[in-house]
Amino acid sequence: MTPILLFGADGxxxxxxxxxxxxxxxxxxxxxxxxxxxxxxxxxxxxxxxxPKIIVNxxxxxxxxxxxxxxxxxxxxxxxxxxxxADEAKKRGTxxxxxxxxxxxxxxxxxxxxxxxxxxxxxxxxxxxRDGEDAVRxxxxxxxxxxxxxxxxxxxHNFVKTILRLAGEGKALRIxxxxxxxxxxxxxIADVTAQILSATQRGTRIEDARLYHLTAxxxxxxxxxxxxxxxxxxxxxxxxxxxxxxxxxxIATADYPLPARRPANSRLDCSRLEGDxxxxxxxxxxxxxxxxxxxxxxxxxxx
Length: 303
Known about the structure:
Helices cover 40% and strands 16% of the residues.
C-alpha cells in the first residue's frame, strides 16, 4: 500500500480526502494538534517518520480577515510550511499535492483567469498563498498545485452554513453582488484529486510542478449563491421554513467593508485541468442540494 501523508485532516477538503484517498494507499492523516505547521522541524520530523510516497497538503490558514492582523502566522502556515514539504518531497522523490486560492489574483481581469496570468494578491492571506505556490514550484520537485475557490461542505465553517444560520435567526440578508466566483464543493476537490493520483499510479507521469485551476462550473455572485442556498433549502425537508430567495438584497462591496480586500472577479478557467486529465467539471448546485439534505438529516437526529 502506497504511504500517503495528509495534512489538514479535519478541514473541509481534508475530511473528504480521507474518503477519496483511502483506496489509493495507507493514509496517515494529521490535524493541527498532531503537527504544528508553524514549526518546520515538526513537519520535517513527521515526513521522515512516515516516509510517504505522496504528501497531500490540505491544511491552510484560511481566516482571511484575521490574517490582516496575524501576517506572520498566515505566512508560516501558508508559505513556509509548503516550502518545507516541497523541500522534503524533492529529497525523497515524493509527489506533493498542494491547494491554493483565487485570492492570488486582484480580480481586475474581465474574463476568467488562466494559470499563466500574473498574480497580484490584495490581502495578507492572498500573498501568503501566492508565496506558498511559489515555494512549491521553486523546489523543482514533483508537485500538483490546485487553485480553487469558495469552498463549501457539510463539515466546517463556510458561506452556506453562515447563510442558513442568519436566515434561521431572521436576520436581514444583504449580500455582496459584485464579486463573482465559482462555489466549489470540498467533495469535488477531493474526488478530482483522487482521480488524478489514481492516474499517476497507473502510469501518468508527473515529473515537475504543475499548476491547475480546479473549481465547479457556473460562476455566480455571493448574492446569487445566497439566493440559491435558500431556493434549494425550500425544497429540503427540515429546512423549508427559511426566507424566500427574493429576501436577499444585493449590495456593493463598498457597502460591506472588511479588513481584507477580495477580488471582484474570482473566475478560474479550468480548461487545462479538464484537457490534461479528460475531465468535465460539474455544476456546484447538485452538491449543494446534497449538503443541505445532509444538514437537514443531522438536525433531525440532533447532531
